[in-house]
Amino acid sequence: MDRTALLEQLNEAERNISESASRLARHEAQIAELDREGRESQRPRIVLATLKDLLAQHYEERERILMELKK
Question: What are the φ/ψ torsions at residue 38 (nearest 5 degrees)?
Fold first, then answer.
């Protein structure tokens, strides 16, 4: 893959990380509010775990691209 394409992929990976991190933070705040209000938060916690997994995948993708750029 050429360097230009890799840099485009890196930009996309960075965007995905930023968006996922923001989404995760908002979701954590919502769960905290549910907990403060004494409301059920089991399902939102399952979604939170999924969001954390997705963010980890984005970090892994960024790392893969960075390694490819070093070649």
Answer: 75, 25
